Amino acid sequence: MQPAATSPSPPLNEAKTKRNAIRTQTVDSLWGCFFILPQMVGLIIFSLIPLVLAFALSLMSWDGFGERSFVGLDNFMGQFKDPDFRIALVNTLYYTVLTVPTGILAAMLVAVGLNKVKGKVLYRLIYFMPNITMSVAVAVVFMWLFNSDFGLINLYLKDWFGIDGPRWLTDTRFVMPSIALLSIWMGLGGSMVLFLAGLQGISPTYYEAAQIDGASKWQQLRHITIPLLSSTTFFVTIMSVIGSFQVFDQSFVMTSGGPAKASYTLVYHIYDSAFVDFTFGTSTSAAVTLFAMILTLTLLQMKISKRWVHYEE
Fold first, then answer.
1. Nearest Cα to 229, choosing from 253, 254, 202?
2. Is 170 domain-assigned?
3. What secondary structure letter does DSSP report for 103?
4. Strand 69-70 to strand 60-61: parallel, antiparallel, or no bridges (unpaired)?
5. What SS3 class is residue 173?
6. How far apart (Å, rounded) are the C-alpha atoms in residues 51 and 44?
7. 15-53 pLDDT per residue, tens
8. What does the DSSP 8-state code read for residue 263?
9. Rounded CA separation 311/313 (Å)
10. Helices H / strands E in the chain, number of each
11. How many Å is the maximal CA-CA distance in the chain?
12. What SS3 state is found at 243?
């Protein structure tokens, strides 16, 4: 009489299951690495390696042709003593103050206005188109609009209000506000789309409860919409500040940094040092300094955000 067949013991089944799970996880990880490999190769070659080389070059003196010589922190010390760098820093901070708060406020108001209107998809397209238009092309068009002799803005000011318009791009008082106005117009669509996405995420029950309590539209905006958009506002603020510190195209095309370096920005200073003066070590040290400023401001904003950013539960 043959003995009855016995089934595998529970410990063996558990061990086999664990081995299969580990094998499956390993295969999934290998496939994941395979799919991200092209992006990782591009990131390493075109981003990480140039970043490391930039930090190394910032400690050297090099004109782009001869041999490099190590100078340590002299390039960085020279930047803070350079009057051009100080002018560029002041102009960039002024531009940031002009564009960031105004751009965020305008984008939020437009998003609130378009949130529940008919045909909002078409409005989104219209508002977003400047955001994807080449900045050089936009700058050329605005050069014509801002022209003090035959530009449309001054012509309309003269015809409609009898006002002689200012010399927008040749007066040191108006050149940076003019560039800021162009940048706000260009970036309005991108920020507006982000705010619209944030508005879609706010539960309508909050507004229904507020209406039952007799809250006005202004009270709903102040006590519901703005607080619950704080996370979106935080993201838009960070991206706007980073973009404002990197402004270059507008001042390069419209004013070449003038008049009297009134539109001379940090990125323009980096370009000028590298491709006009051919002092690549100095230029790279300015770029590294700009990177440190942006990183510091971003970390500071993230630290402060804990006090005013609210998330819907």
1. 202
2. yes
3. H
4. antiparallel
5. coil
6. 10
7. 777 777 788 888 888 898 999 999 999 999 999 999 999
8. T
9. 6
10. 15, 2
11. 117
12. helix
Nearest 5 degrees, angle CA 301-CA 305-CA 307? Answer: 135
Q: Which amino acid is at 65?
A: F
172 domain residue, yes or no:
yes
- Residue 140 within any structural domain of the chain: yes
Q: What are φ and ψ of residue 67, in 5° steps?
A: -80, 150
Q: CB–CB of 162/156 below 8 Å?
A: no
Residue 138, Cα to own-chain centre: how many angstroms? 18
Question: How many domains, in total, are found in the chain?
Answer: 1
Task: Give the model's pLDDT for residue 180.
Answer: 96
Domain that holds residue 270: 70-308
Q: For residue 282, what is the domain's CATH number?
A: 1.10.3720.10
| CA 149, chain centre distance (Å) | 34
From residue 4, alpha-carbon distances to 11, 12, 13, 143, 222 in Å are 20, 19, 20, 94, 78
Query: Which tokens belong to 207?
Result: 């507004």
For residue 1, count CB atoms less than 10 angstroms from its CB and return exposed for 0-12, middle for 13-18, buried for 19 or more: exposed
Give the pLDDT confidence score for residue 3 in this predicted structure: 52
pLDDT at 297: 93
Task: Give the tokens for residue 150.
Answer: 């035959």
